[in-house]
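Troubleshooting log. The previous structure file for this entry was overwritten by mistake, so regenerating from the original sequence record. Sequence copied from the archived sheet and checked twice against the printout by T.R.
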Amino acid sequence: MSSSGESFIWGPRCGAVGWAGFGVYVGEGVGGADVVWVVGALDCATAGLLGDGMSLASVMPGDRLVVDVSRLTFMDAAGIGVLAGAHEGLVAGGGGGLVIRGASGIVRRVFELIGLTRWLLDAREPVGSSPSVAADGECWALELARRAAGLSFADLYVAYFALGGAADLGQLVAYLNGDAEALDRHQRDIAVHAVNERLDDVGRTDRLLSYASA
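Regenerated output below.
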């Protein structure tokens, strides 16, 4: 039984890692999806263990991986770095990225200061595949590709506008920050094309994005 009251089942994909009062436990939550529970203090000394533990989880295409932090007592930038890296890897692999459950106190404050409140899950919100989940993953994938291409927001907007983009700069930035409703599918594809052209120019074809209309 997790600290949030949810039962989980140990299975062949599940396991645990830990050290000096810190632990990462992976189990099957209600509905069969894997959930990662993190316990203790997450800092530079334990961030690597979080990465090891999360690698044990399995995520279906399009789904988000739930990370329960309700028993996490502390988190610093090292922990955020591991979570961000895991999120990027999941999105690149076709998943919906991470969602954080049970954040409170200083842990929630860290997410708020970093500007990652879009990761925080309301206790009543269902988790799984949905158009909004997929769209959130697309927002993050485009933002990561923008960074890989070395484009500033202004640079991207100039390229996007030159290709016929009709949204304003504020809408484009809002989309990159996780507002999936800020751009429709066509406008998102124009932004993707602008980023893909730059990625091709700088030799980062490994990061090319697919088009929603494809």
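The longest strand covers residues 65-75. Archived copy saved in two places this time.
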